[in-house]
Amino acid sequence: MKKKIVSVMLCAAMATTVLAGCGSSNTASTDAAAEETAEDVEAEATKEEAEDAEAAEEATDAAEVTTVEPGVLTMGTNATFPPYEYKDGDDVVGIDAEIAQALADKLGLQLEIVDMDFDSLVASVQSGKIDMSLAGMTVTEERKQNVDFTDSYATGVQVIIVKEDSDIASADDLEGKLIGVQQGTTGHLYCADDFGEDNVIPYANGATAVQALLQGKVDCVVIDQEPAKAFVEANEGLKILETAYTTEDYAAAVSKDNPALTAALNSALQELKDDGTIQGILDKYIKAE
Ligand code: ARG
User: Fold this and answer.
1) Is ligand 1 within 6 A of the CB of residue 190?
2) Which domain of life is it from (predicted)?
3) Is 110 helix (H, G, I), strand (E, B) or coil?
4) What is the mean pLDDT of residues 31-52?
């Protein structure tokens, strides 16, 4: 857009020079005409500049955003994480699906959701297979080495699920216990750091980790609070410990090569926060205690 303004102004300058050149070897009236023409061109340029600025304001940054598939916002997720993303028949639904739809609408793009393993998401963003991941993904320093994150749209809490009769009462009791986690999640990474890789058993998804807990293969499961609530509700004999393991921020991950998309998503996200859309979506799925 800036380029266009510059080239229009350049034309104006050129027109002045050329016409003034003619004027000097001819009559005064040609000079006047030249000036008028130059003025016209300049006025035109100013008008265009104003229109451009207006349009830019309206369309935010959407016009400059490039996506993997033109006109489409391709979101990667791992739909095993209720209420953020889960399957309803063939559809991926939940908080992140609704937020992504609202973001796509703001950017004038069509939304496409690709379901994949959670630990493939960052690489898929990096390789340009997807435009962004929206997957209840926590912002971490390690992930930031590989992808950019948008502003945060929700808070996550890592909690501990145990059997109702467990002797584990808090994170302090996890030493030497077998901890089930979803592969590649922060629960996995933090527990491996804190309690050693040998004490952590990664599963393809949270539901499988919870089945392993019910079968006595692990002593607890460390996972994000909202899916934990859903899993505990769906199964007899489990409880979530009162003391949380850690608190974190969820955000969308975008390629480091596409800062325009990150910027556009951030301004759309801000509008959706300001008008209450994000809170409305969160409240629809997460009932106050
Ligand atoms: N918040 C955790 C993380 O970023 C878990 C996210 C898992 N999300 C999912 N859709 N399965 O590592």
Assistant:
1) no
2) Bacteria
3) strand
4) 55
For 200, half-sphere exposure in the C-beta direction (CA atoms, 13 angstrom radius) is: 20
Chain segment 209-264, per-residue pLDDT in tens: 999 999 999 999 999 999 999 999 999 999 999 988 899 999 999 999 999 999 99
Asked if residue 196 has pLDDT above 50, the reply is: yes
Is the Cα torsion angle 154, 159, 161, 164 positive or negative in sign? Answer: negative
CA–CA gap between residue 289 and residue 33 (Å, rounded):
77
Instruction: Tell which one of 134, 161, 185 to mutate to probe ligand 1, the residue whose CB is within 8 A of the most ligand atoms.
Output: 185
Question: What pTM did the predictor assign?
Answer: 0.79
CA 140 from centroid of its chain's CA atoms: 14
Q: Which residue has the tokens 């992808």?
A: 147
Closest ligand 1 atom to residue 223 Cα is: 5
DSSP string of 116-148? --GGGHHHHHHTTSSSEE-SSPBP-HHHHTT-E
* Alpha helices (runs of H) in the chain, residue ranges in sequence order: 2-25, 28-58, 95-107, 121-126, 141-144, 186-195, 206-214, 225-234, 259-274, 277-285
Backbone φ and ψ for 249, nearest 5 degrees, come out as -105, 135
Contact of 263 with 242, CB cutoff 8 Å = no
Evaluate: CB of 78 within 6 angstroms of ligand 1.
Answer: yes
Q: Ligand 1 pocket, 86 CB below 6 A? A: no
* Banded pLDDT at 281 (limits 50, 70, 90): very high
Q: 22 in the Ramachandran plot: left (φ > 0), alpha (ψ -120 to 50) or beta? A: alpha
